[in-house]
Design goal:
Blueprint (H helix, E strand, L loop, with lengths): L1 H11 L7 E4 L9 E6 L2 E11 L3 E2 L2 E2 L3 H4 L22 E8 L10 E9 L3 E8 L6 H12 L4 E4 L2 H15 L10 E4 H9 L8 H9 L12 H11 L5 H26 L10 H13 L3 H12 L3 H17 L3 H14 L12 H14 L3 H21 L4 H33 L1
Parallel strand pairs: 6-9, 9-10
Antiparallel strand pairs: 1-2, 2-3, 3-8, 4-5, 6-7, 7-8
């Protein structure tokens, strides 16, 4: 009975654990690792320390010391999120798990994380040699993370963190993370680079945007298989690659945060960035309420040759329209409309939109109904030429119907304006 009472007491306990470290050279453990002994059991810890001038790709680890303060704007809900007050408040987090789902059977056999001290960046892996060590590892990790305010991940908000939280529930460990803000870098990476790189997997972002190239890396997809093989035969050799892979993931998370902080701080040389990336950077900066920097990005797009900037002009005009900055939107609509007056572009329905936007501007903002009518007529002429060459889609047919309704309305407004002038002259 006393044993049962002791076990129940341990399950209820939420007090910080007091670990003791035992350095070992046991060949059954990964290199540079040690065993952590706690009242709840033991697990393995591997720790690597990097100086702040350590180069990882295009950046040194210490560059985040100056560029952390705007990182909360990575999140779409940054206005309600607490600010990052120090680079030492950031915890870079990644896991290696036994599967790809988020169900009860998926176990994080390795929890990787990184953090800053005053003088270095520390990358850590917590590893369980068998499922019986999971509880001790979870308690240690929970006690450690309490000093951090922001969790930085790559798809961690929907994958890694829910899995870890689920393991606390299954191990009956009280767990509260309401004060820990989430900065998931996957979503902003997709927004910035989904059109310019093949895939937004972290390894691709590393290579194509951060200047990081991995050599002989073990893919994370093979980690579960390697771990199960380790459980079967105890051979730690293949696990070395999994530890290194996780360590590099943590380092790259910090480097990606530095890169995004560089963008948010207006320190990225946009002249060396491809046009699609510059446009998407401008949209992101605008959403992050950094409007001066956003405008610099949009100006850079406009300075590019026509063949490179053409596809972004209408989208930029739409952004200016939403802000009621018509003095900037109208020249862009005119420029796009002018493209449709020559060559094969005349038959493209994409060239109708700037004409419609200009027509709405002159009708509603300027009350120049005759000029708006001319633009609608031009749009209908283009639509007729398009219709002569191919069958209209349902979307195109609806657009033409709307143009006819707009023309009829504008004809009435124009007639009333002319009639009013005539009456006034007669008077």
């Amino acid at each position: 009975m006393s044993n049962l009472q002791d076990r129940l007491q341990r399950l209820r306990s939420t007090s910080p654990i007091q670990p003791t470290e035992k350095i070992t050279s046991d060949l059954s453990l990964p290199s540079n690792s040690r065993v952590i002994e706690t009242d709840e059991g033991s697990f393995v810890m591997r720790e690597c320390r990097y100086s702040l001038d350590h180069q990882h790709g295009h950046y040194t680890m210490g560059q985040l010391v100056e560029g952390y303060d705007l990182l909360s704007r990575i999140s779409k809900r940054f206005q309600s999120m607490k600010n990052v007050l120090s680079h030492k408040n950031l915890l870079f987090f990644d896991t290696e798990t036994t599967g790809l789902g988020v169900g009860a059977g998926n176990v994080p056999f390795m929890i990787g994380y990184g953090y800053y001290t005053d003088t270095e960046f520390v990358a850590v892996q917590l590893f369980i040699r068998h499922p019986g060590e999971e509880r001790a590892m979870l308690l240690y990790f929970y006690d450690f993370i309490r000093s951090f305010t922001h969790l930085v991940t790559y798809n961690g908000r929907t994958f890694d963190w829910p899995i870890v939280k689920n393991r606390y529930v299954l191990n009956r460990i009280p767990f509260a993370d309401g004060e820990l803000e989430q900065l998931d870098l996957l979503y902003i990476s997709r927004n910035l680079w989904k059109n310019s790189i093949i895939s937004c997997r972290l390894s691709n972002v590393e290579e194509q945007r951060l200047g990081i190239r991995r050599h002989n890396d073990v893919s994370g997809a093979y980690a579960p298989m390697i771990y199960f093989q380790y459980l079967a035969d105890g051979d730690v050799g293949p696990l070395e690659g999994v530890f290194l892979h996780n360590e590099w993931d943590v380092l790259s998370l910090a480097t990606l945060a530095i890169h995004l902080g560089t963008i948010l701080g207006g320190q990225l040389d946009l002249t060396q960035v491809n046009t699609d990336d510059v446009f998407r950077i401008g949209v992101w900066l605008d959403q992050a309420d950094l409007h001066v920097l956003a405008e610099e990005a949009f100006i850079e797009v406009l300075n590019r040759p026509m063949e490179k900037k053409r596809r972004y002009l209408l989208a930029m005009a739409t952004l200016y329209k939403k802000k009621k900055q018509f003095e900037r939107a109208v020249p862009l609509w005119n420029e796009v409309a002018g493209i449709g007056r020559v060559g094969h572009a005349l038959q493209s329905y994409n060239t109708l939109q700037p004409l419609i936007e200009l027509a709405m501007y002159y009708e509603h903002q300027c009350k120049r109904f005759d000029q708006a009518l001319d633009l609608v007529e031009e749009a209908l002429n283009r639509a007729e030429k398009r219709q002569a060459n191919r069958r209209l889609s349902d979307k195109d047919r609806l657009l033409v119907e709307q143009l006819h309704k707009r023309r009829a309305r504008l004809m009435i407004k124009t007639y009333r304006g002319i009639a009013g002038d005539v009456d006034l002259l007669s008077f």
